[in-house]
Amino acid sequence: MAEATADEKDERVLGRRWTVRLDAAGRGTTAVRVSCNRSACPDEALPDAAAGRGAAVAHLRAHLDAASPPRADAYCACRAGGCAAHIDQGDGRGRGRTAEPWRCGGPVVLAVVSDRGGRWWQALECCTRCAAALPRARTVATSAVATSAVGSAPVVGGQAAGGPRAAAVGTPHFSDGRTHTGPPPARAAREVPAPRPAPARRRQRGKIAQRAVPPDLRPVVLRDELIELGNLFRRYQRRTEPDLAVLGDLHERKARAFIAWAQVTGDPELRAEAERAEQSAATVRMQHRHRNGERTEEDEPAVARLLTAPGQWEQARAVLAHVAGHTPLPGAQARLLVLMLTLRTAHSGTGNLVGQDLAGLGLDDPEALAEQLTDCGWLRLPGTASDLLASRPESPTPVTVPSLVPGGGVSAPFTFGKKARAKLSGWGQRVVSDKKLRKRKAPAPVRLLALTLATRTDADGLLGAGDEGLTLESLLRQVPVEPGELADLVDRLTQADWLTDAALTDSHLTGRLTERVLPLTCPLV
Question: Which residues lie within the region annotated Disordered (predicted)?
Fold first, then answer.
């Protein structure tokens, strides 16, 4: 068996590697996207994760079927990717490295690796030792040509292809240049010793925010970042004097790391932790500016919004987009009722309602609409729609939306937690029950338009992200009314002191939400 030093590996050809990933195609949909790191392979869209996994495995198998056998003169592809065996364990200044450097060995193989969550699959050329050190790796092919030394020419017929002085097949070659000239070992020349597993101490472990960082978390850079952040937070707690600038940087790094962790694992609690870290970073930086006498207008926002974090604004838009594509009945009144029921049941698919929740939506016949939703199977009630309308706060009616109940192999359309759901539901209720909308007895389409406009402004209440306003096409997707009815809805919002400077053209709506309703807005960021 030949062993390679770092200098010898640099003289060899880099091993091949194919990586196939499975990612969500967008918010509010179960569709997924299969992508390959090879530029010649186009992305493929699939309707759900099960179909995506099958396509990803088939794509990687096609690469393996078309590929040539493993090349004996290749060095490990995982070295370029920063695997646990090759990664530098030091601090960048020569300290903290392991006592023994990793030595590759054994024939070159094609190994297949995948993550536990079924989000990516990878095939790569590497040595036998590295294949054994990679978690969940499976060898699918082994190089058929032996090499006399790492980086030298293949051995053919007892002599190296490069000349008659090459060593015989099976003669050990060591990294210090010595060649064993004694009798061959008792084992067969082509027998490869069992690969040495990676030392346990190479796997870093750590905790952050009372969470253990999984030692097999991938990518490795994310795992190392989480471990380092946990150590830095604990080191900060041991300081004798606070440094708010350093603490703000730590919270910002934590927010970015937890967002990446949530994307890898799909855990909504990690995303909630990231939002809390973002808020902590903003608070700490504001305190730092105040202590240094650098108070600015940005420190105290002009608007105290009901939904305070950008992540909550995106969640509100995600709910509206989901309802626009999954309302089982036509019309703006059904859309508004489905939206409010979705906000109430988004976390677990169940929630409690009272009659006033439906009576305050400006619906022409809320009882008939509720019966239609139960008849088509979208809504489940323990009794009749009439019982729901008659229920009071002391005895609310439990309702269930089956499509929002997690489990059964179907991924939930939303990932936010129980607290975020309560905030979103409270926000939606505040908008549709605005005192001036109630005073003018605004119908359901007007309230639905008010909800839509509240999520489509900038920080100052100006409609849209730029000066052009909102396209009528995007508005009509959210508020299903005839184009000719939109002008009357805009006038009603203007009269209710919701909208000012409104201008409706054949293609756009421009204007600004009034200062009175700015606390209910979700700015586009």
Answer: 163-208
pLDDT tens-place string over residues 253-268: 999 999 999 998 888 8
Q: How confident is the model at residue 300, as a pLDDT?
A: 47
Checking if the pLDDT of 447 tops 90, the result is: yes
267-to-33, 49, 103 alpha-carbon distances in Å:
19, 16, 37
What pLDDT score was predicted for residue 183? Answer: 46
pLDDT at residue 169 tops 60: no
Residue 179 lies in a domain: no
Q: What DSSP string runs through 427-454?
A: HHHHHHT-HHHHHTT--HHHHHHHHHHH
Distance CA 266, CA 233 (A): 25
Which 8-state DSSP code applies to residue 163? Answer: -
Q: For residues 381 and 460, state if they share a domain.
A: yes
Classify the phi-psi angles of 280: left when phi > 0, otherwise alpha if psi is within -120 to 50, otherwise beta. alpha
| Residue where a domain terminates, one of 266, 299, 332 | 299
- Both 355 and 443 in one domain: the answer is yes
Q: For residue 8, give its domain range.
A: 3-16+67-160
3-state secondary structure of 65: helix
pTM, rounded to two decimals? 0.47
Q: What is the pLDDT of residues 60-91, one digit of tens each?
A: 888 888 888 888 888 787 776 666 556 554 54
Q: Kindly state whether residues 402 and 475 are assigned to the same domain.
A: yes
Query: Residue 408's pLDDT is what?
Result: 61
- Check residue 66 and give its pLDDT: 84
Which pLDDT belongs to residue 451?
A: 94
Of 196, 130, 173, 170, nearest to 3 by C-alpha is 173
pLDDT at 341: 92
**Closest residue by Cα to residue 342 from 451, 443, 437, 442:** 451
Residue carrying structure tokens 């006498």:
293
The arithmetic mean of pLDDT across residues 461-471, rounded, is 81
What phi, psi does 310 have (nearest 5°)? Answer: -60, -30
Q: In the chain, how many domains are there? A: 3
What secondary structure, in 3-state letters, does 400-426 show? ECHHHCCECCECCCCCCCHHHHHHHHH
Instruction: Identify which of 458, 447, 473 has the alpha carbon closest to the alpha carbon of residue 512.
Output: 458
User: Which DSSP helix (H) or strand (E) runs through 324?
Assistant: helix 310-326
What's the CA gap between 36 and 22, in Å, rounded? 9
CA-angle at 395, arms to 391 and 401, nearest 5°:
70
Of 160, 188, 223, the one marking the end of a domain is: 160
| 74-83, 197-206, 386-395: least confidently modelled range | 197-206
Where does residue 158 fall: left (phi above 0), alpha (psi -120 to 50 degrees), or beta otherwise?
A: left
Residue 219 CA to residue 232 CA, distance in Å, equals: 20
Whether residue 333 is found in the same domain as residue 289: no
Is the pLDDT at 132 greater than 60? The verdict is yes
